[in-house]
């Protein structure tokens, strides 16, 4: 599995390649991409790590797995290069507008990523039309290890956990100098049950301001 990462995250990921689970993960991902249509593009699997260095991590937003329909997934959780916005992203933008009055129409979230927002899915790949199809390959171990690596080595990081699945990561976050924000998932099934009104965008900037860090321009 080729790791196309140009930032200091490469060193963090290379540590993972030496662990026991990695060989099975690599074999299954490569096999899936060789035999099926998978997303995102192979070269974009690790795209979320390409926009800032490890030490500059400010916010971690955890998704579940990439969009499993054509021309949607780009390696950043919740983001898309498609002009048709997925419903979860529409709801994220609705909350952003209600919270800070910001209106966004593009699914491109690289501007967030460039400011130190890690938009990471729990599984970094998926087979077309089969949600969660790569979850058991070992991606869960990878993502858990990345979360712990951040938590152990960086203070003041804000972990944003939307939905019950993301909330399972709470026990991994033990650094008392880091922060956890939780809400319902922004999907149409749950957004009205605790996502709308969470005001996470303003809360994130309030925390950054308190810690004398540059605010995120959402």
- Encode the helix/strand succession as letters: HHEEHHEEHEHEH
For the sheet with most strands, the description reads: 4 strands, parallel
Gross geometry: globular
Taking the alpha carbons of the first and last residues, their distance comes to 33 Å
Number of helices: 7
DSSP strand (E) fraction? 5-15%
| Strand ordering within the main sheet | 3-2-5-6
Share of helix, binned: 25-40%
Q: What's the overall average pLDDT, rounded?
A: 97
List its traits.
single chain, 218 residues, alpha/beta, four-stranded parallel beta sheet, two-stranded antiparallel sheet
Description:
The protein has 218 residues and is an alpha/beta fold. Helix content is 32%, strand content 11%. The protein has seven helices and six strands. Strands 3-2-5-6 form a four-stranded parallel sheet. A two-stranded antiparallel ribbon has the order 1-4. Strand 5 (158-162), helix 6 (164-167) and strand 6 (179-183) form a beta-alpha-beta unit. It starts with 8 loop residues before the first helix and ends in an 8-residue tail after the last helix.
